[in-house]
Please model this.
Amino acid sequence: MDKSGKKNRREFLFTASYTVGAVGLGATIWPFIDQMNPDSSVKALATTEVDISQIEPGKAITVLWRGKPVFVKRRTPEEIADAKKVKLESLKHPEKDEDRVKKEEWLVMLGICTHLGCVPLSNKGEYNGWFCPCHGSHYDTSGRIRKGPAPTNMEVPKYEFVDNNTIKIG
Ligand code: FES
Model:
């Protein structure tokens, strides 16, 4: 393996182990926070505004909303076309792409694998969407489950566009 190949593998292993560690912690904390009577600092996070103006086409960012990761992905025309051409009957959890987005260029969803709650990796997997390294779930460019043990698509939270450069989650 060449030098750059080794580096990539190290980065991947770091990402995968970090993801597992973070989720192990998150899985125990998220339900606990939900049960607490929220103080003002938690209430302030009930909605999160995100500046999306710096996100390049094809890139995704992860923001925290109520302690959960949310993916905001700016899709390329090819990724949108891939998401739209899928036949609903071929999906484990049939949802049209247009029912999962408000503007087709932007996909906003909880970055939590619906199998056991790991955080999937963006722009990875057999469908060029997301890949969950914990047990091998592949999601497409609409965040729909296409292969692997996850039972449902990644969840789209309540959000709205405040203006062309800002979304408000929650
Ligand atoms: S938690 Fe993602 S595949 Fe199991």
In short: Confidence is low (pLDDT under 50) at residues 1-7, 10-44. Strands lie at 48-51, 60-65, 68-74, 106-110, 121-124, 129-132, 137-139, 145-147, 159-163, 166-169.
